[in-house]
Amino acid sequence: MGPSLYWWAKETHKGTPVVVKMENPNNWSMVELESPSEDDFLYSNDGVSKGGRNRNAKQLTWVILLKAHKAAGCLTSIGAAFLSLAAIVRRRVVAGKTDSTDKSSGENLTVKSRFYSCIKALLWLSLVLLGFEIVAYFKGWHFEASDLQLQHLYTLASGFAVKDVFDLLYSKWVMIRVEYLAPPLQFLANVCILLFLIQSLDRLILCLGCFWIKLRKIKPIPKTGALDLESGDGDAYFPMVLVQIPMCNEKEVYQQSIGAVCNLDWPKDKLLIQVLDDSDDLTTQMLIRDEVNQWHQNGVNIIYRHRVIREGYKAGNLKSAMNCSYVKDYEFVAIFDADFQPNPDFLKRTVPHFKGNEELGLVQARWSFVNKDENLLTRLQLINLAFHFEVEQQVNGIFLNFFGFNGTAGVWRIKALEESGGWLERTTVEDMDIAVRAHLHGWKFIFLNDVECQCELPESYEAYRKQQHRWHSGPMQLFRLCFPAIIKAKIKLWKKANLIFLFFLLRKLILPFYSFTLFCIILPMTMFIPEASLPSWVICYVPATMSFLNILPAPKSFPFIVPYLLFENTMSVTKFNAMISGLFQLGSAYEWVVTKKTGRSSEGDLVSLVEKSPPPQRGTSEPNLEELKEEIAQKVKASKKKKHNRIYTKELALAFLLLTAAVRSLLSAQGVHFYFLLFQGISFLLVGFDLIGEQVM
């Protein structure tokens, strides 16, 4: 007999298989024997190696039943997940905690209610129109892509097509759409598409610039040699450096940031650390002051400053600290927010860039994140921030010597701060404010992509939303205030154009405007006014390409490219609202809300702080301080129990608007539009019920 055609059956099987012995479905057992493949059941005897086992039909049936049982188990798990999700949503609805009751959100309640009312009006209008369109559909008014031509619509709406009162009304509605509603909607859509393409081109140019930097291996190199950094001889460059740590009621992270800064590798006689505490909680003040005293007793040159009146928020805090008489003895100032932990060599890798470069005003380091894999929200934030540092900051630093100061993890030349007017309390983005004014005075900036400083990402949607509101309202405030100064500044014309058109208008105003208007308003409206349309490449291909470019600096995040695209459109509601608040000087634009920290990078710090025994050299006030520590620990535990996930009404209203438009798109057989509206609506729904990020209730 010739050789078997099933040659692969001769291979030795690997694994730990089982033989299933069953008398009936309720009485069965499993015995480990060898490792046959599923194909062993499918071939004849000549296809099985000598010594192999033949399988009868009964055994094959039971194996199939086992696989069916496994599939049923997967379906059961999915069903349980949906039931759990429904239970969570039910608890949120019963609790009734909405963003409208959150007075600490930083948003003007009057403006927020008006914005929400407009979205609700659109939602109710879309529901009415959907009902109208469904009735028309079943009465024979079928609009597909080939039907949406002006001449054909006139034919459909003519008297020959009118059979009853409803047909007469619908034909009039079609004519109103064609003559009055579609033209302005299409014009607005075309404007947004143009802005979208311009912004996409800007993003593409930035990516090409980053690629060129990587290809040519371009990076800032200090004029100070490596030997000067490592040696302790007289040739080493160790100027006087002031380090500032501004904080406010951040008891979760104060200990780790102070500890990291106190371990900076720099001569003690050339370093002074200022802990600038704006806390209004007495126990937090006591804990921070005690931490500073401990480091001071260990020989660190560190002082504690507390302001009784918290004017100007962070800018006022920094301004007050810079007015101290001893600051004149220092040449540079490094700033770290309360959750930032610089490496010991941070100053040795940043300060040398100033030597021999008198035009250099700022050296900015990159952020890294200790909790980037904590949940889906932190993973999506990582994509945005990786692109910001890897592409935007690096490209602008290399080619323009200008970028927005990130507010922390940077070293300033004190002379540059003073010549630029110092810290001003006029906006909530004091970091961007001082960077723009320094640029107008001719100072240059350097961004170091290879110097990282650890920090923490917001883990809850509530904290992230407040942060984004401040980050997007402040630039519009600043643009209004800085525009006259930019026009009058004695800098080159191309630098003025870059500031006005690229830095402010394109990246701070146009981006949130078209993102919200195009994908959350115009797109659903075109479903009900199909005579105005958006091409498929605007809905699908260009956004997908831009998301791909955004995700390149964080390659491990590629599995999240679709959630990232949907979430960015979802966040456009908050960013658009913040942009409008800042542009028109609404009350919420001037509110500073400290981003909530969890101290994720130092879990157990608070416990160790409470359990820490007092050193013998402490005074008699130590027992009272220990009582305060126990009290603050109890307050932290109690605050965790009081936290709630909220329902976000604007996001929910937009979710139902988009889902309503998705149903309408089915009537016109618009495939790409339907899927985009469906998944975008689901994204808004998840965010509206606060199902993304930290779950506390």
Write the SSE topology.
Blueprint: E1 18-24, E2 27-32, H1 57-95, H2 109-138, H3 150-156, H4 165-216, H5 226-230, E3 241-247, H6 254-262, E4 271-277, H7 282-297, E5 302-306, H8 313-322, E6 332-335, E7 341-342, H9 346-350, E8 360-369, H10 376-399, E9 410-413, H11 414-419, H12 430-440, E10 444-455, H13 461-488, H14 493-528, H15 536-551, H16 561-583, H17 605-611, H18 622-642, H19 649-667, H20 671-688
Parallel strand pairs: 3-4, 3-6, 4-5, 8-10
Antiparallel strand pairs: 1-2, 6-9, 7-10, 8-9
Helix pairs in contact: 2-19, 3-4, 4-10, 4-14, 4-15, 6-7, 7-18, 12-13, 13-14, 13-16, 14-16, 14-19, 15-16, 16-20, 17-18, 19-20
Q: What report would you give on this structure?
A:
By secondary structure, the chain is α/β, with parallel strands linked by helices. The chain contains 20 helices and 10 strands. It has helices spanning 57-95, 109-138, 150-156, 165-216, 226-230, 254-262, 282-297, 313-322, 346-350, 376-399, 414-419, 430-440, 461-488, 493-528, 536-551, 561-583, 605-611, 622-642, 649-667, 671-688, and strands at residues 18-24, 27-32, 241-247, 271-277, 302-306, 332-335, 341-342, 360-369, 410-413, 444-455. The strands form 2 sheets. It has an 8-stranded mixed sheet with strand order 5-4-3-6-9-8-10-7, with helices on both faces. The longest helix has 52 residues, at 165-216. The termini are far apart. The relative contact order is 0.11.
